[in-house]
Amino acid sequence: MVTVKPVEIPGMECETPHFLDAQRQLDEIALEMGLDPELHERLRYPKRALIVTVPVRMDNGTVRTFTGYRVQHDVSLGPGKGGIRFHPEVNLGEVSALAMLMTWKCALMGLPYGGAKGGIRCEPWNLSIGEQERLTRRYTSEIINIIGPDKDIPAPDMYTNEQTMAWIMDTYSINVGHTVPSVVTGKPVSIGGSLGRQEATGRGVAFCVHRACLEFGITDKSPSVVVQGFGNVGGVAARQLFDSGYKVVAVSDVHGGIYNPDGIDIPRLQAYISEMGRVEGFSNCKNVSNAELLTLPCDVLVPAALGNQIHERNMTDIKAKIIVEGANGPVGPEADHYLHEKGILIVPDILANAGGVTVSYFEWVQGLMHLFWSEDEVNKRLEEIMGRACDQVFAMVKKTGLRPRMAALRLAVSRLAEAKRLRGLYP
Ligand code: GLU
Q: How many domains does the chain have?
């Protein structure tokens, strides 16, 4: 007898655990707000996903082939917007999940953008500058048909920076035959970048720490803060918080962390880092691991490094009263529920780290207008937009009893639903 094996229908290629987590978050809020099921289904998947093979001539003369991605989750509200990351864990699922997060982030902040993300699976720390440049330029030419100032505008993310953006801008411009600064944001100021863009994410994080302390009713004049990650986000946030009187008791970088319950002198630490290249060994501080750092007693914990740092295995050890997500997705879904139940206030990534994309928007606008603003103007407008978004999220929390992540998501998804309803379905 012939037995016919049932055909297994594979899931979508992007359906990795990371992507399914992002999808479940949408499902949760869709159910809660009674979202139209057909619309919900459309938002569960990326609109467009491109996988490219990127061959690169290495310094030793051999050719290595990398894999790159650019995913546009939704573009109903405007061109795609989102960073490009270089990391060995980059895959279609991760990039798709992060693109979805960008859709919510831009909608929540009221920016005229859709959500996108890109990345190259590589170990950037093992690549020379020349190899990084050739990788970036070839990747740009492979995705050139789907990016552009009206289509999709990349920006820096993990292990990419101003220089990476300058190479993308140059490669794109050479290919179209004229200079197009607004194809990327996060560029160096000398070629059309915005003043205040580099510090914007950290500034926004510090702003949210301040708002969350007020919301939580922390009355201490100098609340204690622990910051994981001392890069473009964590380093800037720590400095901002120190300057406004917070007691930064612990910080870390990839190598490890330092702790002083009486507070760390951040400007002196920054000087130390520029000499030593790491935070470990700084005077009057105890060395702690990145894992220990997360469980230190403090008022506010700012995870500003990698995703999924607070999860099922360490969530019961968290002692902070408030968590402000500087990174994208640092608190896993189980931990998010558990910590909320415990009374910990979590300011979600799509609000807390949205300062970066907000000033990216300013950079794009300034580039299109060929008219540039002062740093004060940029910071003032950033505070206005962050303040408005915080007000709306905390008002939604009060109105619905939702946890802040879901309140923020609800605001974002309803804006998108409205846009999609008005635009209708083609054809
Ligand atoms: N990569 C940043 C983020 O995750 C910035 C994106 C942008 O500026 O477009 O929000």
A: 2
Q: Are 238 and 230 in contact (CB under 8 A)?
A: yes
Spatial separation of the C-alpha atoms in residues 6 and 4, rounded to whole Å = 6
CATH number at residue 217: 3.40.50.720
Q: Tell me which DSSP letter residue 126 carries.
A: G
CATH classification of the domain holding 131: 3.40.50.10860
**In the predicted model, is pLDDT for residue 120 greater than 80?**
yes
How many whole angstroms separate alpha carbon 311 and alpha carbon 331? 6
**Residues of the domain holding 28:** 17-179
Q: Would you say 237 and 326 are in contact if contact means Cβ atoms under 8 Å apart?
A: yes
Q: Name the domain boundary from 329, 352, 375.
A: 352
Q: Please, which pLDDT band fits residue 11 given cuts at 50, 70 and 90?
A: confident
Q: Whose CA is nearest to atom 8 of ligand 1?
A: 357
Residue 12: the pLDDT is: 86
pLDDT digit string (tens) for 38-77? Answer: 999 999 999 999 999 999 999 999 999 999 999 999 999 9
Residue 216 and residue 330 in one domain: yes
For a mutational test of ligand 1's pocket, the pick from 357, 366, 382, i.e. the residue with the most ligand atoms closer than 8 A to its C-beta, is 357
Q: Is residue 37 part of a domain?
A: yes
319-360 pLDDT, tens digit per residue, is 999 999 999 999 999 999 999 999 999 999 999 999 999 999
Same-domain status, 150 and 248 = no
Specify whether 127 is located in the same domain as 227. no
Cα separation, 334 vs 331, in Å, equals 8
Catalytic residue status for 221: no
d(CA 383, CA 9): 48
Nearby residues of 92 by Cβ (< 8 Å), 6 or more positions away: 13, 14, 16, 49, 51, 69, 71
221 domain-assigned: yes
- Which residues does 27 contact at the CB level (< 8 Å), separation at least 6? 40, 44
Instruction: Count each helix (H run) and each strand (E run) in the chain, helices first.
Output: 14, 12
- CA gap 370, 185 in Å, rounded: 14
| Residues with C-beta less than 6 Å from any ligand 1 atom | 81-83, 155, 157, 185-186, 328, 353, 356-357, 360
The answer to the question of residue 38 being in a domain is yes
The answer to whether residue 322 is domain-embedded is yes
- Chain position carrying tokens 């030593």: 276
Q: Which of 47, 81, 105, 117 is an active site residue?
A: 117
- Mean pLDDT within 361-387: 98
Among left, alpha and beta (phi > 0; psi -120 to 50; other), residue 110 is: left
